[in-house]
Write a structure and sequence with these properties.
178 residues; binds protoporphyrin IX containing FE
């Protein structure tokens, strides 16, 4: 399979990044809610260590992904027969994913810096974690997460609708099936 995308399917690089990013997002959503829901300070710090490392990883992957599309590859043409409004909605959702991921990573890093949690989470310093609600980036982080979940439901529902109801094998463009 070609590294770069063709007019009718994504290339190996885009497919690998897409599914790696999807796995990271799932890990981030689960670990993020474990952080905010944990009562035990040691468990909270451990979940946050994992969460922050995964968050930095998705930021790096997403910046790499943007660079890949910008400099090296072109997206396939839209699937045939798709109404223009739906096509624009799908592209808008894809763009907002990028903005949300970068914004969530930035607000996450902002929370770590402003709250002073870094040395407890990564430096082995003792003490309980601060209350993250006292730092401003906690609000956009919480809102961004909920918008991301809503868009993910739309995105996955759209992909499944195309593949199984319209029968246009959209998932195959993203490397699932032939
Ligand atoms: C979990 C996080 C996910 C994110 C952040 C995400 C994001 C994206 C983005 C940004 C694109 C546009 C291509 C690109 O820019 O590389 C895309 C395309 C696509 N995604 Fe996802 N996706 C996710 C999960 C999924 C899942 C679970 C499915 C399948 C059920 C899926 C199916 C697809 C398909 C089929 C395309 C290609 C659409 C086309 O041919 O135009 N995605 N996704
Ligand atoms: C795309 C990237 C990210 C996603 C999807 C994500 C997801 C989440 C989720 C689901 C929560 C729980 C929200 C709630 O209960 O309202 C959360 C909280 C949090 N996240 Fe993230 N996060 C990301 C990046 C980061 C990064 C990079 C860091 C730090 C470097 C970070 C630090 C935190 C902190 C400190 C909390 C607050 C926990 C609390 O209130 O106890 N996040 N995140």
């Amino acid at each position: 399979m070609a590294l770069k995308s063709t007019q009718d399917r994504f290339g190996t690089v885009a497919i690998t990044i897409h599914w790696l990013a999807a796995a990271l997002i799932v890990a981030l959503l689960i670990s993020g809610f474990r952080v905010s829901g944990a009562a035990d300070p040691a468990a909270k710090a451990a979940f946050l260590r994992f969460h922050a490392v995964m968050g930095i990883a998705i930021l790096a992957l997403t910046l790499g992904r943007i660079a890949w599309w910008w400099f090296a590859d072109r997206k396939p043409l839209p699937v045939a027969g798709q109404p223009p409004l739906l096509r624009r909605a799908a592209s808008a959702v894809h763009l907002v994913f990028y903005i949300l991921i970068v914004g969530l990573a930035a607000s996450g890093i902002g929370m770590m810096i402003l709250s002073g949690a870094g040395p407890i989470v990564f430096g082995g310093a003792s003490g309980a974690l601060p209350d993250f609600w006292t730092v401003p980036p906690r609000i956009p982080h919480g809102i961004g997460v909920r918008v991301l979940i809503a868009l993910l439901i739309l995105h996955v529902a759209g992909a499944l609708y195309h593949h199984f109801i319209r029968g246009d094998r959209l998932l195959a463009r993203m490397g699932v099936g032939r």
